[in-house]
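Re: Re: ligand-bound prediction request (bumping)

Still looking for help on this. To restate: I need the protein modeled with uracil bound, output as structure tokens. Inputs repeated here so nobody has to scroll up.
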Amino acid sequence: MNAIDIIARKRDGFTLTAGEIDFFIQGYTSGAIPDYQAAAWCMAVFLRGMNSEEVTELTLSIARSGQMLDLSDVAPLVADKHSTGGVGDKVTLALGPVVAACGQPVGKMSGRGLGFSGGTIDKLESIPGWSPRLSISDFKRQLANIGLVVAGQTSDLAPADGKLYALRDVTATVPSLPLIASSVMSKKLASGANVILLDVKVGEGAFMRTLPDAEALARIMVTIGAQAGRRVVARVSDMSQPLGHAVGNALEVKEAIATLKGQGPSDFTRLIVEDAGLLLHLCGCIPAAVDSDAIAQRAIADGSALEKFRQFVQAQGGNPAVVDDPEGVLPHAPVVHTLTSPQGGWLAAVNARTFGEVTVQLGGGRMKKEDAIDPSVGVVLRAKIGDRVESGQPLCDIHARSEADARAAAERLLAAYLWSAAPVEPPALIKQTIYPEALNV
Ligand code: URA
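Reply:
Sorry for the wait, this slipped through. Here it is.
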């Protein structure tokens, strides 16, 4: 068996055996297979796809590339939530503290920005001092002590995903069902949570642009989770426009903190409360008769979720003053330019993908693996689909490193908007919830 033959077999449309997949993944993890062969293999998978057995084998192989955490000595049940990637998707930052504040431990591995979509680890790293690098004993200790931990891929946990993820980001191989499903589920299986809520994004700002594609991704991930003995439920949610108002690393942290103070955008707050309620219900920590959304809402209203976020930031080395003074602690872009509407009307489209791409172009994402990102840049929306805007009214604020960057961003962003002469209904936020029972797994 060798790497070239395995790449060629996938290139030519053959089904790979479990042995071939494992040979490739473990070889890439150890460094025996170099980046350029892994990039060619990812492109072959991207173009040829994989059947469900191959996706399951790939997931298990990536999960096995490091240790598989058993958290039963820390808590009887550990919850996790993972998004397939979107624009302005800062859900983990607010949902984790809400669920943990309700008494349900949350332990998860997150990723960095991928293509036009942001990454939880990049966002949290905009808090001075905060680190995703945790040993397994640190991970377990923090989970036991404060009930909330977010780690990055390490050499201990799913290291193959860490390498493949960074490689896919810069080789145009992100929006592939088998590569996304195996990336997400390998992390989930390795980090040991028993109850997992998947947020499968759909629309222009997601890797799955159509509902059938998003449903197919949701179904395969729920199936893999169930086969591995985990309780996995997937929600398909809207990503036609950015979630909330902020897009960009530090800007999103600021918005997540505002949300935990009860001052967040309505769509983002609703998704947090509904997802937290569902996760708490799935974990069985809320009796069926009780309204689980109300319990999640209470954790925001009484300040306990905000307090949990403070503990979490501090536990991972971050400056906890970010909670009281996000403006003072988080980095700022030197230029803020307001884009105004060239016409009046109801907003009919606010293309999320353009906002993600513009944020990468402003320096908030990577074009090459080794690129450093600028946490301060991004865009803050002032109007969303369904809003009435008048000519000259602000559409969004562009946070940039220079006037020239801001002008280039404004030009591109203008093309993200469509106006209608008649009122427009905002898109439904949650499209569907997929339970394993409905898939007979
Ligand atoms: N999130 C992941 O962890 N991996 C992907 O490929 C996409 C989203």
